[in-house]
Amino acid sequence: MRLDLATAAPEAAPDAAPRPLLEIRGLTVSYPGPTGPVEIVSDLDLTVGRAERVAIVGESGSGKSVTARSLLRLDRRATVTGSLLLDGTDLLALGEKEMRSYRGRRIALMLQDPMTTLNPVLTVGSQVMEALRVHGVGKAEARRRAIAVLDRLGIPDAARRMRAYPHEFSGGMRQRVCLAMAIVAEPDLLIADEPTTALDVRVQEQVLTLIDSLVDELGMGVILITHDLGLVAGFAERVAVMYAGRRVETGAVDELYRSPRHPYTAGLLGSVARVDRDDPLRPIPGSPVMPTARPVGCAFHVRCAHAEADCGVERPEIRLVGHSDVACHHPLALREGA
């Protein structure tokens, strides 16, 4: 008997918001410590739409890279709770065999250092092809697609360079190879973890332009993880700011850069040189807190010039302030009367 799909699954209302490609809900990541579990990421919520570019920013140790690795469940030492919905499927509920079918094919990770990502004793071609071969693509087809993606990413004479080794490529070309490995299977979601580290400004722009063009061409969502707010301004549409493992502010890039609501966000922006202003740089005082020694209340209050008594007692919940979601008892916009 044929199922009447029109009756069984009524169409959504025309004005219904499309479901995000990725929905992170209550993500908490802990690692074993000398006296018990140490929480590195705490109760993180974030969404990424199709063909959307979302950045996660923060100082070293804020939990950005741990978040990236948890999305692919790469570290077996980690205890990961919450939900990671990719197209409605909870990745945390999948068995390891099922999860392997998602890595590379549905969700891919581009790491920051090509010299540790690439195997020096294997040819570039074999490493790009591997992302397809592990998902059952035949050798001839994998080779054809590997050459095509290297050519698309601007590797000259791609068919011949397939036989070359990583040390025979420049830093910028090695980063393109890493990008080719990540996108050769045309994933739905690309996570780019500090993809421009150690590259000069010209090559940084080239790499981000390539990723940007792939978003338009393939419709994939992108999470850009970086400490460089300058990169974010020219690439992402939304940005999530993390501090001490927690999301402290999220909003549209233009709004957040123009009027940051969290003192930490304002501090990050004040530490960046800008060509449109000649204000002196204002570094954030102190150092990021260690995961094993996070203070009670707001983790940033020990470095915050705007902290009041309640900041050291109660952890602020995330709430909407203007156009941004902010975890702060005393958001800057309210102080300034905006």
TrEMBL record:
Please tell me the species this chain comes from.
Nocardioides ginsengisoli
What SUPFAM superfamilies does the entry give? P-loop containing nucleoside triphosphate hydrolases (SSF52540)
Q: What is its main location?
A: membrane
Q: Which family does it belong to?
A: Belongs to the ABC transporter superfamily.
Bilayer topology term: Peripheral membrane protein
Q: Which InterPro entries match?
A: AAA+_ATPase (IPR003593), ABC_Ni/Peptide_Import (IPR050388), ABC_transporter-like_ATP-bd (IPR003439), ABC_transporter-like_CS (IPR017871), Oligopep_ABC_C (IPR013563), P-loop_NTPase (IPR027417)
Classification from the root reads: Bacteria, Bacillati, Actinomycetota, Actinomycetes, Propionibacteriales
Which PANTHER family has this protein been placed in? DIPEPTIDE TRANSPORT ATP-BINDING PROTEIN DPPD, OLIGOPEPTIDE TRANSPORT ATP-BINDING PROTEIN APPD
Query: Known PROSITE patterns for this protein?
Result: ABC_TRANSPORTER_1, ABC_TRANSPORTER_2
Keywords assigned by UniProt?
Answer: ATP-binding, Cell membrane, Membrane, Nucleotide-binding, Transport
Domain ABC transporter: residue ranges: 24-269
What molecular function terms (GO) are annotated for this protein?
ATP binding
* Compartment annotation: Cell membrane
- Which superkingdom does the taxonomy of this entry point to? Bacteria
User: What is the designated name of this protein?
Assistant: ABC transporter ATP-binding protein
Does this entry carry the keyword Lipid metabolism? no
